[in-house]
Amino acid sequence: xxxxxxxxxxxxxxxxxxxxxxxxxxxxxxxxxxxxxxxxxxxxxxxxxxxxxxxxxxxxxxxxxxxxxxxxxxxxxxxxxxxxxxxxxxxxxxxxxxxxxxxxxxxxxxxxxxxxxxxxxxxxxxxxxxxxxxxxxxxxxxxxxxxxxxxxxxxxxxxxxxxxxxxxxxxxxxxxxxxxxxxxxxxxxxxxxxxxxxxxxxxxxxxxxxxxxxxxxxxxxxxxxxxxxxxxxxxxxxxxxxxxxxxxxxxxxxxxxxxxxxxxxxxxxxxxxxxxxxxx
Length: 280
Hints:
One of its GO terms (biological process) is rRNA base methylation. By secondary structure, the protein is α/β, with parallel strands linked by helices.
């Protein structure tokens, strides 16, 4: 049941896209002095060794972080994201890639708080070792969807929830939508960011249509693909659904995604888009 290990896929194009959006969201929260809360429902291991046998099996990082690592001139937001990667590679060589918790931890201020949920026993053990003695980080060995019910709402009014499941179960999208509705009901002022794969585009569009019918308002969609979507057995791209997106996020994404596509697209394949699924 719990077979997915992100170490096989760390640093790929979908990670770069997801973590760039995540960086934009965290940067928006830093604009105000009041502390914020971050919940990661499917946290993974925290960081990944790109020199490991797991990562080198398919070398998926070559579709994402590797080419960006070598670029000297990049948009400011991309530079900010790359700072979180460089923080784990102080010698200037790309060896480690941060998972979402480590990306966000790079930007936390002393009063901000991070809570991480992970169900896989090996991953949660590694996650605990990664953040041992870190008083700003609390880790729960817990199903991510249960975490939305158990840990929301937080005392903080401001914050961000990242929902990034493995999509290895047949009813994953149904469970995700049910949990998202419950999480939003509990904390309607929070930002919710939901990652989903683009393999079978019909399944992805069905998920988005069902999300539109939930009654949740103010939903922005961003998608990024480096391959055309005619092969359902590979990860052509991915999407991020953002509920309660911060001001100017749409504008920032419309500026950044064409640049990212130019760097990572394979032979001109793929595409990007930013649009409102549900307006206010």
